Amino acid sequence: MGAVLDFEQPFRERMLGNVIGDMGKMFQQAGDIAEEYQQLMRQYPNEAIDKLPEFIDRIRDINPERAYESLAGGPCEKWIGPVLNIFGEVYPELNRESRKKGLKLCINFLDDLRYDYAQNKLEVIQEPWLATDIVITRPIYWCGYKEYCDFADTHQKWKDFSKGIGSVKSAFWLAMGVVQHKHTSLEVRQNFYERYPVLMERTKDAIAAMAAVYGGRKAVKENISVDEGIDKWLNGVDSLLYNDIRTKIEEKKWILLPD
What we know:
This protein is mainly α. The chain has helices at 25-43, 45-50, 52-60, 67-72, 77-90, 96-111, 115-122, 128-137, 146-153, 158-164, 171-178, 186-195, 197-222, 226-234, 242-251.
């Protein structure tokens, strides 16, 4: 598991930090390429979006003939994840057309992988909007958040829970686990909401998107009303968030690409 991004700092104040550890020459090369991409994203975001596939390929090509991928089950998420997360950092700030362009490029990359290898990449995406737009467009890439629910089950006190959140793979999937009231205590949820307000706002946007899209599909499949479908999908989510989520459903901030 890796570090949680600090969602309470402006994008330009965030640094790549310890996303990639010192695990040999290939990891260092991947880190150097990710840093180069971050600089391009800061200076010329539109160009950086267009060049996302190029930077992903450069990282994959660090490994001669991509031999490592055949052994590891696809591209290493510790190499590719930082580039996806650099794009994810700016994703909510982009206009819808730029978001659509970048989202399509991410999905094109994932579509070339086996579905379970693609899921591994989703596990390390930090930004709620990006992860959600991917999984509502391609539900097969849903990676889930069971590990965070399991952790919460055995850490009901905030003092204990908070010690473990600095070493998670994804801030977003952690937040998705936190809002599951059957697994987390009220103490944990309230403390988490108070300490990570920006992350929680975007996570509520994400839940609203999933509830609307997945709930709508459930309504069609089960021949029930859309509201009933949404309520079924929200079952398990902290009821303290319902009003905000319902408001965010009306805002429709998500992007659902056509098949």
